[in-house]
Amino acid sequence: MSDTAAAAASDAEGSAASRSERAPRRGEEKRGLFARIALFVRQVVAELKKVVRPTRQELVTYTSVVLVFVTVVMLFVTVIDLGVGKLAFWVFG
Predict the structure, then answer these.
(1) pLDDT confidence of residue 30
(2) Contact present, 41 and 33 (Cβ < 8 Å)
(3) What span, in angstroms and rounded, lies between the C-alpha atoms of 23 and 76?
């Protein structure tokens, strides 16, 4: 990369960072506290409307998968723990 291109890229990054730190643009007014809270609540409600709830069958499937996975991990950890315990007993008597 040439020095000119590197300088241009650096300037672009710097101007983008300073742009976000500046006051609002012309024509934009700073919103008050209650207006920002109301906007936040409206956005939360809009996002919650997009949520898709799982069906009963999907919920049973997901729960089964989680329970099987947890059981397998518990068995694995138990076997490792017993093995390390026996090894430690064998080494240290």
Answers:
(1) 80
(2) no
(3) 57
Buried b (16+ CB within 10 A) or exposed e, 47-65: eeeeeeeeeeeeeeeeeee
3-state secondary structure the chain: CCHHHHHHHHHHHHHHHHHHHCCCCCCCCCCCHHHHHHHHHHHHHHHHHCCCCCCHHHHHHHHHHHHHHHHHHHHHHHHHHHHHHHHHHHHHC
> How far, rounded to the nearest angstrom, does the alpha carbon of residue 21 sit from its chain's CA centroid?
25
Q: What is the tens place of the pLDDT at every residue in 31-67?
A: 899 999 999 999 999 999 999 999 999 999 999 999 9
How does pLDDT run across 70-82, given as a tens digit for each residue?
A: 999 999 999 999 9
Amino acid symbol at 76: F
Q: What angle do CA 12, 15, 20 make, to 5 degrees?
A: 130
